[in-house]
Design brief:
Layout: E1 7-15, E2 25-30, E3 35-42, H1 47-63, H2 72-93, E4 101-110, E5 113-119, E6 123-128, E7 131-134, H3 141-147, H4 153-158, E8 178-183, E9 189-193, H5 195-198, H6 203-211, H7 216-229, E10 236-244
Antiparallel strand pairs: 1-10, 2-3, 3-4, 4-5, 5-8, 6-7, 6-9, 9-10
Helix pairs in contact: 1-2
Amino acid sequence: MATAVLQYLAAAVTDRGRKRPSNEDAFGFSVEDGVYVVCDGMGGAAAGEVASSLAVDEVLHLLTGQKQANQLPNCVEDAIVAANEAIYSRAQRNQRLSGMGTTLVALAAHERQVWVLNIGDSRCYRLRNGKLELLTLDHSLVEEQVRMGKMTRAEALRSPLKNVITRALGTQCRVTPDIFGLEAESNDLFLLCTDGLTRELSDGAITALLAEGGSLDAICARLVEAAKKAGGHDNITCLLVRAAA
């Protein structure tokens, strides 16, 4: 029995939230090429916006047109290296941009094969059969302390160090992303988001909002509005990707 080929649909929304004067998040995607990217920039002045936009543009540029599934993992790594170099070298040339960087979470899909990669604390979740699963590991000080058993989840939420990221794109001359390979199923729903969403909403709240259904655009808007109502302390970006047979 032949396995049905999966098609993908996507939508995204970004919002500066209720407290920040500007939006340093960025996203981009190409359904045709199966590439989806979300970034959360950091740095003084407009540096965060520069870093996140550079990362999205570079990854999309290098991953569009890569149709061979067996080539994608290597292409993904090459794209991350190139994006890191682009941000790092730009910051070296312009003192105003010194120290800028960005988190990155991305998804690359070819038929049923999906690769998820991340640097920093932007996340990728998958909703399958009503169950939400976090597919990425945060590169943050408190999350690493939790994984080592040195801090409880409750302590991490209260910690004054919860904003400290241990790995970012563009802040060093080299960076290593986490890359996770998996097989998608029909009706899988992937959520790529910045911490402006996950700091405000629990996994349970996110699951409930996703489960309400509707168009991907409507679900994205619902997630962002809920995060704003919960405080909206940071920029908020969510990108949804649905697999369908």
